[in-house]
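Write out this protein's structure.
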Amino acid sequence: MYLGLISLLILLAISLNIAIAVESRRVHDKIYTSISGASCFRRLNGTHQTGCSSSQYGSTGALHLIQVVEDFEFLLRNPPAPPYAPMIPPHLFTRENIMRLKEQGTSSISAVLLIGGKEKVTQFSHELTCPNRYSGLLLSESNETATCDTRNPENAWNPWGSGLLHEDFPFPILYISDEDEVNKLKSCFEKFNNYDYEGHNTRSLCSVELQQFMVGAVSSEVCIRRTNFLNNLGSTKYCDPLEGSNVYATLYPRNIQPNAVNGQANETNITDEKEKFILITCRMDTASMFDNIALGAMDSLTGYVTLMSIASTLKQYLPSNSSNLTKKTNILFVIFNGESYDYIGSQRFVFDMENFDFPSASTQRAPITFENIELMIDIGVLDEISTINVHTLNKTDKAEEFVRVLNSQSQNFNINYQLNVGNNIPPTSAQSFLRKMKTFPAIILNSKPQNKYYHSIYDNAANLNFTYYNHTEQNYTKLISTEEALQLFPAESVQMKIRNASTSVALALTQILFNQGPKVKGYASPLLIDELLHCFLEAADCRLFKDISPVNSLPGPPFPPMRYISVLMSPQDASGWTYRLMGFLLSDEVDTPEEKCAPLPLQWIAGPKGVGECRHTTNNYTYALSPAFLIDNYDWKSGEYSTWTESTWTKLSARMFLRPSRVHEIVTLSIGIVVLIISFCLMYIISSRSEVLFEGATSSSDA
């Protein structure tokens, strides 16, 4: 009987706890409404911290909608109920306005919300006017760039840059693009905040709370030192180096070096001075102020797609065996990662070449050094493809010959290539090579800057005027004539413009290496370019990515891959897809069943037919981690190598709620204090009069 009663009481207690938990959840949901958006986060380098952070327990502020510049005055001139969280449309999210909030709103601004699309925006770039100004070629005895005019933005490589990406903000910033989320915030502001501004402190206000506390602080040097110190005691991390992977491939397979054995250091390997390469490079990464929103359509993807198109075209133009070339030179394609942050990928590539560590010993191939590179063609920003400048630091016969051949091969494509000699070279990967050797034979293909959304959330498909034509029934790797191409794409489409540029470069290289001309007729395929842009700008669940994946593999996500370099253990989708693409476009199909299609360099992929095919590939990865994190006792302030790190955080969240007025809070606190005092007084009276109040009761000691 007693056991049943006890069980019943336990069940009742459990039920009561569940009911209380459910009810408390309901109360929580009634109080708070979650907001989805992209957060600004903190990055650090050898001397500074940049980005945004909330306070440790979150930053709270009353909403205030900014519609015109004059609306900022209310927030900066003794507002009645601080702190506030202004909602700013993109056309007012300018350096002047945001820096005013930072410098003058220290006590009145706790958070900033960037809301809506770019309807009224004419320019929106948060990068510096001279990107990577401290890591390329520098002026003599100075840490200032020698390749960009920092005092004259009109002549800089990014004239529209605001530099906000490199500022440090004491408040969190959240970007909200979803129209429903924006309307929800505006409705709450209109209902509770948008009247009687002077009476804000007397009533409840619609507010937001942003949880974006960044653990890393001060600089990469301090952050790494703290992390290493605490790692001896625990597993706490304050920041992680920015790192990823470069991807490379050769047009022709390289011979195995007999004494290059797995695990053997490359310093003992012998370089083959007779092995020569033309190095063709670009970058795969981009950057923006907000987490996971960086498509880089114009700032890097056009160059990336151009290189892929060149690779695919050369694979078909040139003989299948390098011994048939007039000039016995292989082509090495390298796509660097992390170039947006002081050339992380190319700096590491140069560092490895200097130390005879490219490629790694595990590949069993001879190291490649500067002496093996006959010419470097670096594909930079191609904002306007009708006129492309060929930049070189020094006037050389190779550069002049290449420009002459380029122009002779581009007469049918309405492209004019102009040689530009001197220090005014764009911020591309070639600067890492030229900084080590100013006589290095590097040329850069780059157009005049026209991208007003460089390194921003709005450098997307619309900025590139890209439309996906979805010719799924066509063979996208086959070379086609101009007449065939114009039946599929308009002459002024971005697909045709990139096709023209990549074809002219491929024809020029073919003439240099193979005097007989292309072995097949036709030009670069705009179908391949169409698929590449679609996969990287609209959705990874695309035809091309399915073809280069293993048979029956899961489809890619319905959104494009992230191309921000990020940190170790984070998704590196762009590197993975680039690796597969290079393997597919530069490989040869071999007649081998799936069970025998191994090990590398043999790879089994689905192929265009979807039934599977074996490919003999030449692609591989190299590290894109700055040498600064490998060198013992590195001088973090030297500026020799990139020192960028990313702060860790515990939570990124945002929610909206109704914040009680200051009067309400004071009254509530006062009532609580009064109740507490009365409770203490009652307890004292009861305790001191217990003999009278509980006369005749049995004490615990008596029991």
